[in-house]
Specification:
The chain has helices at residues 8-29, 45-56, 73-80, 98-105, 149-152, 154-158, 178-188, 202-220, 227-230, 243-275, and strands spanning 33-39, 62-68, 85-89, 115-119, 136-142, 162-166, 194-196. It is α/β, with parallel strands linked by helices. It has 2 domains: 8-227, 3-Layer(aba) Sandwich (Rossmann fold); 242-276. Bound molecules: magnesium ion (MG).
């Protein structure tokens, strides 16, 4: 006897999309730029996020959700850098979903966050189907996964705004052609930027960070202000602005003021001499 077919998948995605829309609205309301970083285990997601945190944290207020089936090693790596971090253990699930993100963002103050990193569970398949309400979807693939990995997993590459071929420094050692991987991604999704990165080549990591900043500024409609313009004026509350930088800025202002005053004095002295 054939039982009724239960179309579970349809309902799951419908519910997920409703919650994703709610997340998106919350992010919009508070000018939070949310980045969903997907990729297999060992592709280098955590390291790339760490590098982005180190580079952007003096300039913007950051937070992270670290998705993992179990354990909190990645969450600890982000928390060590001094940003609010929510470990999101999914249990048996192989992906983050909008509900987990919804619950996670209840634990932070969105009005105090500019950029939220969401490291998805290490998997190249399941995360592709779930909208989290993010602004930027990124996939990281390592050359160590083999240069035929992309065409075997087309879905995730078609859903992203940015793709990264990582660990290119070891491509030769693992007999992988990084350029083939780039062209496979371009074949699947011709409209997105594709970066080749290696932690050993700083400029390649900088290019990934620049993509985040560019997209964040495009969302909130701001130009890249100098660091001191981003922060609130010496708040009593929460600011990630390091104290030593505030001292540096105060010193710079003081030096400029002294410079202007001494110019004015010199000008007055010259005028006085001319009149005399
Ligand atoms: Mg990780």
């Amino acid at each position: 006897m054939i039982m009724h077919i239960i179309s579970l998948g349809h309902d799951v995605f419908k519910e997920n999309n409703k919650l994703a829309a709610k997340n998106k609205e919350k992010f919009r309301k508070h000018d939070v730029f949310a980045v969903n970083v997907m990729g297999a285990i060992g592709s280098g997601k955590t390291t790339l996020i760490e590098e982005a945190i180190k580079s952007l944290q003096g300039k913007y207020r950051l937070a992270a959700i670290a998705g993992d089936v179990v354990a909190d090693m990645d969450a600890n790596r982000f928390a060590k850098l001094g940003i609010p971090t929510i470990p999101a253990n999914t249990g048996k699930e192989c992906h983050l979903d909008a509900n987990i993100v919804n619950k996670s963002i209840e634990r932070v103050n969105l009005k105090d966050i500019d950029i939220l990193f969401m490291e998805n569970v290490g998997n190249l398949i399941c995360p592709a189907d779930f909208d989290l309400g993010e602004d930027m979807r990124v996939v990281v693939v390592s050359v160590s996964e083999g240069d035929d990995i992309i065409l075997k997993h087309p879905v995730v590459f078609k859903t992203v705004n940015l793709a990264i071929v990582n660990k290119t420094d070891i491509a030769e050692a693992v007999d992988a052609d990084a350029d083939k991987m780039v062209s496979d991604i371009e074949y699947l999704n011709p409209d997105i930027p594709v970066l080749k990165t290696s932690k050993k080549q700083k400029e390649t990591v900088d290019a990934w960070i620049a993509e985040i900043e560019k997209a964040y500024l495009a969302k909130v409609g701001k130009k890249a202000w100098p660091v001191f313009m981003k922060t609130r004026p010496f708040p009593g509350g929460s600011s990630s602005f390091p104290a030593e930088d505030i001292k540096t800025i105060k010193f710079k202002y003081l030096r400029t003021l002294v410079g202007l005053l001494s110019c004015k004095c010199r000008a007055e002295a010259v005028m006085g001499a001319l009149v005399a």
